Amino acid sequence: PKGIYQVDNTTSFSAADLTLAWALGSYSFSVFKSKSKKTGATGAQLVHPTSPADPARDRAMSLASATYLVRDLVNFPADDMGPEAIEIRSQAVAARFGAKINVIHGNALLEATNGGFPQVHAVGRAAAPWESRAPRVIDLRWGDEDDPHIVLVGKGVCFDTGGLDIKPAAGMRNMKKDMAGSAQVLGLATMIMRNKLRVNLRVMIAAVENSIAGNAFRPGDVLTARNGLTVEIENTDAEGRLVISDLMAAAAEEHPDMMIDCATLTGAQRVALGAEIAGIFCNRKETANRLMDLGEQVSDPVWELPIFKPYEKLLRSSIADMKNCSTGGLGGAITAALFLEKFIGQCDDWVHVDFMGYNNSSQPGRPEGGEAHGMRALYTLLEERFR
What we know:
Layout: E1 3-6, H1 15-26, E2 44-47, H2 55-75, H3 83-97, E3 100-105, H4 108-111, H5 118-124, E4 136-142, E5 149-160, H6 169-172, H7 180-194, E6 200-210, E7 222-224, E8 230-232, H8 240-252, E9 258-263, H9 267-273, E10 278-282, H10 285-297, E11 302-304, E12 322-323, H11 332-341, E13 350-354, E14 358-359, E15 369-370, H12 375-386
Parallel strand pairs: 1-2, 5-6, 5-9, 8-12, 9-13, 10-11
Antiparallel strand pairs: 3-4, 4-6, 7-8, 10-13, 14-15
C-alpha cells in the first residue's frame, strides 16, 4: 500500500537484505504498456535506517541495479534486443565505468586473428543481410593488467528459432530470453566494476540470431572452431555451445586465472533442477562447494552437476573431432558441459552456469519475466576472493 516504510530493528533480517528484497520485488517492465496500463510505482517507499553512504546499503543497491539490467535486457522483445542492441547496451556499460570495448561483426569474424570466430559467424550468418542482426563478438576490458585475470563469457542468442532443426511453436515462444547469458555477464560485470574489485576483467559476448535462410548452417555440416577442433552438427538447435566455445577458446589464449560462462544452454538442466536453480559445472571442487554455500546464504541457489567424463562417448563423430550434441538428449546438460570443456585450455578454475533466465510466473521478489539466476552467488564469490 502507499506509504513510507522503515525497517524494524527487531527483524531477524539485515536492513541491507530487506532493502534488496524490496528493490527486487518493486521491479516492473512496462515499456510497451500505454500510460493507463503502466504498473509498478505504487507510492510505497522504504527508508533505509542508515546513512546513504552505508556500504551494506550501497552493495544492496548494486545487486538490485545489476538485476534490473539483466531483467530489462531479457524482457525486451527480440525485435528490440537484437545483436546491435546488445552491442549498444554493452557500449553504454563500458562508457559508464571507463572500460575499453571492441566489437567484431559480420564477415570480419572470419578474418580476425588467431582463427577468428568461425562458429559465431556460422550460427549468425542467416540473419546477416540485416546489419542490425549480423553476428558479432563484443569484447570489454577493465581493470589493472597486473591483477588476477577473470573472464566472463555470455551467450547472446537474441532469438533462437532452432535453425533448420526448427523448434515447435511452444518451444520458440519465449526464445527472446536465449540471450540471458549475455545479460547476466553484463550485470555481473557492472557489480565488479562499480565495487572496484581487484581484477583484470574481460567480458566476451557472442551476439547472434539463430535464424532460418538459404545460407543457414545445416545438420551434418562440419565447422572448424577457433582452436582448430572440428565439430559435426548433430542439431542446429544446439547452437549456444558453438558460439560461446569460440569465445572461450579466445579467452583461454590469455591463460586466465578464472573463467565463468553463463548460458541458457539446455532444457536438460531445467528438467534436472527446475526453473529456479542454476546448474553449475566446475573443474575445481573448492569453487563449486563455495558457490553452493554462498548461493544458499544470499538466496540465489545454485547446484553442482557432474562433469562425467564417460559421457564423452555420446559426442563422438565418425567424421569430425566431435558432435555438437548427443543423439537422444540423455545427459544433455552434462554433454554440453563436456563439449565446452574442450575449449578452456589450461584454465583450472572454470565455472559453467546453465540457467533458465526467466520466471514463468510471479513470486515474491521475482516478477514474471527475465531473471538473473546465480549472479548474486557468483558476485559474492568474486567479492570474497578479490575485494
